[in-house]
Amino acid sequence: MRLLSPTTVCLLGLGLMGSLAAAPAGHGPSQSLVSHPAVGKEDGAISVTSDSAEYCTQLTRNVDQLLAMPHGIPVGAMDDAKRLRAEGDTLCKHRHLRAGIARLRRALVLLEHSQEHS
User: Fold this and answer.
1) What is the Cα–Cα distance from 71 to 77, expressed in whole angstroms?
2) pLDDT, tens digit, for every residue of 74-97?
3) What is the radius of gyration, based on Cα positions, of the chain?
4) What distances in angstroms separate CA 7 from CA 22, 28, 67, one per listed residue?
């Protein structure tokens, strides 16, 4: 089992942040991204959702579910995911939704990637 180096994790995070920065910015809570029905993972597509407090809550629950499941995720990845989850939740609670969602998504990617390679 191979662990990601801190540099790799940082670069992956920067790539994620860059893709989020390319998303259209709303000018208020009523002008968030258009919401589409979720597509299953088996389709390989990512659903587009609005950046809302409800979406933050959903992502937090998803991360919590992955953290609670018995698995072979390396300790370092678990610690990083827990830190990202805590930061994301705090940012969402302080109405920094995009930054919070970015960290929560990164935690999910980290956990899912670690599960695939364990």
Assistant:
1) 12
2) 889 999 999 999 999 999 999 999
3) 14
4) 23, 35, 23
